[in-house]
Amino acid sequence: MSSHQSSSFERGTDGPKVILAGLDGSAPSLRAAAYAAGLARRQRSLLAIVYVQPVVTAGTAMGMPVPAAPDGLAEDLMHEVRASAERLRDLYEVRWEFHTYHGDPYSGLVQAADELTADAVVVGASEQAGHRIVGSVAVRLVKAGRWPVTVVP
């Protein structure tokens, strides 16, 4: 063992400072956000609630990404997600921020976790049967090995 000790901070060693929760309006994501809110309250961490708005890039709008859902539907979902985040804040009395990213859920959550310097990521288990074969967002986040990931059923 070296007598020289580093004084640099190691992310996550004093408990998480930023807990990221992926929220998409599904029941598992709402449970995950509630779980993350409880963790954030107990750890006195910032809860970063992240909604990733899907985009379609293949040939639409001359190659420019556009919302995957009709404008009204995407807007409605974003309002629903934001309202859910407000309810969580009121229930858990926690410091929180709401962020919207665009893209596929995995890439959006990775980008958010990097930009927000997340110490932990909490997501809901996928409800889609096909994900058992190709792998869910949660499994891909775990495999990335960059943050502790909690998957809430």
From TrEMBL:
<comment type="similarity">
    <text>Belongs to the universal stress protein A family.</text>
</comment>
<dbReference type="InterPro" id="IPR006015">
    <property type="entry name" value="Universal_stress_UspA"/>
</dbReference>
<dbReference type="InterPro" id="IPR014729">
    <property type="entry name" value="Rossmann-like_a/b/a_fold"/>
</dbReference>
<feature type="domain" description="UspA">
    <location>
        <begin position="17"/>
        <end position="153"/>
    </location>
</feature>
<protein>
    <submittedName>
        <fullName>Universal stress protein</fullName>
    </submittedName>
</protein>
<dbReference type="InterPro" id="IPR006016">
    <property type="entry name" value="UspA"/>
</dbReference>
<dbReference type="Pfam" id="PF00582">
    <property type="entry name" value="Usp"/>
</dbReference>
